[in-house]
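re: ur question from earlier - yeah i can do the single chain one, its not a big deal. heres the input i used so u can compare w yours
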Amino acid sequence: MARSRGGGNRRPTNWARNITFGADRIETPTSLEQLQELVSRCDRVRALGSGHSFSDIADTPGVLVSLAGLPQRVEIDAEQSTATVSAGIRYTELCQRLHANGYALHNLGSLPHISVAGSCATATHGSGDSNGNLATAVSAIEMVTADGSLVTLSRTADGDLFDGVVVGLGSLGIVTSLTLDAQPAFDVRQCVYERLSFDALLECTDDIFAGGYSVSVFTDWRSYQVNQVWVKRRTDDPRDPAATFLGATPADAARHPVPGMPADSCTEQLGVPGPWYERLPHFRPDFTPSSGRELQSEYLVPRRHAVDALDAMRRIGHRVAPVLQISELRTVASDRLWMSPSYRRDVLGIHFTWVDDMDVVLPVIGLVEEALAPFDPAPHWGKLSTIPADVVRTLYVRLGDFQDLVRRHDPDRKFRNAFVARYFLEDP
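and the output i got, formated as tokens:
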């Protein structure tokens, strides 16, 4: 969420407080009609999600719009196995509603506190060899366009064009609802394994990430062992959660990904079965994660480069560790979404949770990017990165098509901001 640094007229910031929004004001319409009227009369406007982005993707010199005031909507179509949901709803509320009706989503991020529209617009991803990012569940989008009109686009009606709209990065309009593919609800067991050697990680990378429905490897890059491997398996998976995991042993108590932190905020472990939405995220919805005392960056590299990229990171681990809280490794399946870092390529995500000190973190981010440069790393759109925009552009083969899409939907540059100008359309 947007938050103020204090009283008075101080400008609001993002959750991590590394971005101070330059918007004139934040508006919270309470009806669709109010939103349409607001968009139609604004010169510059952007949607504000839950504020969990560490980049300036949401900022605008005009008006920020929060969708939190719009009526919450979850409409399940049992015949189509879909759920149409309000854009501002957070996964924690949505998942409870879906599960109560016997449905699940295919994938979730590590935090359930984030908004659905913001997560999909930035290709936020979750984990799993066979799991596409959260946006791959989107089958239809309703949004308010620059003139205040309400339009609906769908996978069925709009085909390839729809693949350009889903990860829209806030550049095409204000999304008001999304229709998501659903599946029957399922249960998951979550186990944490410790003392996996780094050599085993490099030698058995594919086996490790194939070890569950969703697998995350946590490392501080300090030693010859990774800290933890979090393995989430559906309860119909016959593998024994009590067995060793490629030489790693099951933890004897619940663990937090960051060494020394209490595990109270984490979802239940130790192989206890539970609903999908209470196991796929790492953190419980009733805890505020970290209270914003961190910075984050992440790079998605093609799976074919995974071992070499991890080896390159190990070689600079002694430089990274002093300003790092923890690093997470996770896989994402390829997709067809034009501006997704997983477009037409399976990827390994190398995620960094840094200490909350931009001055000491930024030089190390540059060092990480230099080490990963040979492996075509795509930065997560909502995280910190210093990779030059002209290099990022080369990673997106449908960039020209997306640029045309943005110009067509936003001819008056209403939704444009510094982020859009930097990465897609050089003229601000």
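Residues 1-8 have pLDDT under 50 and may be disordered. not sure if urs matches, ping me
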